[in-house]
Design a protein that fits this description.
The chain is α/β, with parallel strands linked by helices. It has three domains: 5-100, 2-Layer Sandwich (Nucleotidyltransferase, domain 5), CATH 3.30.420.40; 113-207; 224-343, no CATH class. Helices cover 56% and strands 11% of the residues. It is built from 14 helices and seven strands. The protein has helices at residues 34-43, 57-66, 76-79, 89-100, 113-144, 154-166, 176-207, 209-214, 222-232, 241-247, 272-291, 298-305, 308-328, 337-343; strands spanning 5-9, 14-20, 26-33, 48-52, 70-74, 252-254, 263-266. The strands form two sheets. Strands 3-2-1-4-5 form a five-stranded mixed beta sheet. It has a two-stranded antiparallel ribbon with strand order 6-7.
Length: 344
């Protein structure tokens, strides 16, 4: 009995595994505790192991690879169709084992520890940004109950609050002033955390050669470049730039039938955080193009034909394809690369 393929249903404490031989016949159904995983797989002959890309998947992928196994991760939505009956751990493991053996299956790149670390910093920063926005909105809402309305912007809020708290003629009750001071201090602490994490991201970005190369693309700054490199690595999992753009959800959804092509809005699949960074970066480029218009440029022609939101998504899509070319072929960015290639 030689096991060729194994599907592992990951969990916190108990893992379900399902193995088949070269003929696809089930030869292994077993539950393992977390403490037994390493001991079991280090003794097992090298084989193909499939797992869903969920919490802890990248850790186990690196660990099982170190034992000589070929490990592949898949998005859970691609595994779901292979579940034949009611959902349980055994059925999930069998479905994973079946899905990983499909020749047209799409796989998730396995991240290194360094990639996971910098992405954790990104996630923490994103959480602090949301908390900072929520705290600022709460302060504005409380002030509006007493007829005090501030101009937009967190910096404006922090700057004007001391004057508001010291003004005894603005109708703000004395009981509210200590509360607002406490909330403003919390807002400042959140803002400080965002700034500190951004410094860490910038430091990592300056030390990573691939991230620095991506920063040369208009609309791609240190935050976007570092997040892209930490997420896709050298982009070797994608055969072309179009696949990367589709993976990020920057291409139209299709609802085609009977030979009639029907394209809808962008699919919004993949990493929401990455897509948001690319689109916001594209917006900043469009704002710059409006003030210094080059009528012959591709972007100017797009903004003339379509609205700014469509143009921003189009530029984000184009930047995603450029990012793939720079990462996959180890190139540097040249603004006139396409024109020079056409001339040659």
């Amino acid at each position: 009995m030689k096991i060729t393929t194994i599907g592992i249903d990951l969990a916190k404490s108990v893992f379900q595994i399902h193995g088949v031989d070269k003929h696809g016949k089930a030869v292994l159904r077993k539950s393992l505790k977390r403490s037994q995983m390493a001991e079991y797989f280090v003794k097992l002959a090298p084989c193909l192991i499939g797992m869903e890309a969920c919490g802890g998947a990248h850790y186990w992928a690196r660990k099982l690879r170190s034992y000589g196994h070929a490990v592949k991760l898949m998005a859970p939505q691609f595994v779901k169709p292979y579940v034949k009956t009611n959902k349980n751990d055994m059925a999930d493991a069998e479905a994973i084992c079946e899905a990983v053996s499909r020749p047209n299956m799409r796989f998730v790149p396995i991240k290194t520890e360094e990639q996971q670390a910098i992405l954790s910093v990104h996630r923490a920063r994103s959480g602090f940004v949301k908390a900072r926005t929520a705290q600022a909105n709460q302060i504005r809402g409380l002030l509006s109950e007493f007829g005090i309305v501030l101009n937009p912007g967190i910096r404006t809020l922090i700057k004007q609050m001391p004057e508001i708290l010291e003004d005894g003629e603005n109708g703000l009750p004395m009981a509210m002033r200590p509360l607002l001071e406490r909330l403003v201090e919390h807002l400042k602490a959140l803002d400080q955390q965002v700034g500190d994490l951004e410094k860490e991201i910038h430091q990592w970005h300056r030390e990573n050669e691939a991230s620095v190369r991506l920063e040369a693309i208009p609309g791609v700054g240190p935050l976007t470049a570092s997040a892209i490199v930490a997420t896709v690595g050298n982009a070797s999992e994608f055969s072309n730039g179009r696949q990367l753009a589709a993976w990020l959800g920057l291409v139209p959804r299709q609802h085609s039938s009977g030979g009639k092509q029907t394209l809808l809005g962008i699919s919004k699949r993949g990493d929401t955080y990455m897509r948001t960074l690319l689109i916001h970066g594209a917006r900043s480029v469009i704002r710059y193009v409006e003030s210094k218009a080059d009528e012959a440029s591709w972007l100017h022609k797009v903004t003339v034909r379509r609205n700014k939101n469509v143009a921003a998504v189009a530029l984000a899509n184009k930047n995603a394809r450029t990012i793939w070319a720079l990462l996959a072929h180890q190139r540097t960015y040249h603004p006139d690369y396409a024109a020079a290639k056409a001339t040659a």
